[in-house]
What we know:
Blueprint: E1 15-19, H1 27-36, E2 41-45, H2 51-61, E3 66-70, H3 75-84, E4 88-90, H4 96-105, E5 109-110, E6 112-113, H5 116-125, E7 129-132, H6 140-148, E8 155-156, H7 167-171, E9 179-181, H8 187-192, H9 195-210
Parallel strand pairs: 1-2, 1-9, 2-3, 3-4, 4-5, 6-7, 7-8
Helix pairs in contact: 1-9, 2-3, 3-4
GO molecular function, one term: (4S)-4-hydroxy-2-oxoglutarate aldolase activity
Family: Belongs to the KHG/KDPG aldolase family.
Pfam families: Aldolase
Amino acid sequence: xxxxxxxxxxxxxxxxxxxxxxxxxHAVPLAHALLEGGVDVMEITLxxxxxxxxxxxxxxxxxxxxxxxxxxxxxxxxxxxxxxGATFALxxxxxxALVDAVKAANLPFIPGVMTPGEVMHRREQGFGLMKLxxxxxxxxxxMLKALGAPLPDVQFCPTGGxxxxxxxxFLKLPNVAMAGGSWLTPADALxxxxxALITRLAREATALANDL
Length: 212
């Protein structure tokens, strides 16, 4: 099957860790820690200078990890994340120029949306999976339920305000494919290399997602 920007990334985890790495050396042990906890996806965000090097490190050393680039907001970043080895990308919002770029590159892409109009626009372009961001500020569970009635053919990855306390509530919704969150990779745990803690957090999130 030919991969296009509309291809759904192949990871199986319903929890997507949203990761800010400041040291590329943390990337590979982090990937192994997440896999050990049952999470086979990483959204490494372009929020630090270390991001591209981190993506490249995981792509080369841990091929069983589905490595996505997050916070892709500019056209030039599309080729940069592909060159680094990302197998898909996500954005907090979206522009038509960004869609043109991922379409030309055949890079699986999850565009960010916040309003019904944005959802309809991206659906017209061919996207069936979108990132609701920031999810809590956009209306959270209530917004997703409201979107599900008129737009039942669209799936979402809510990100922003998702936590262990509400993860199951999000994942129970029929239009939620997976949910993203930063709690699996706390900055202090990354700084001290506490991979055991990250494995435990990943395992707990996986258990919550599977207990539905």
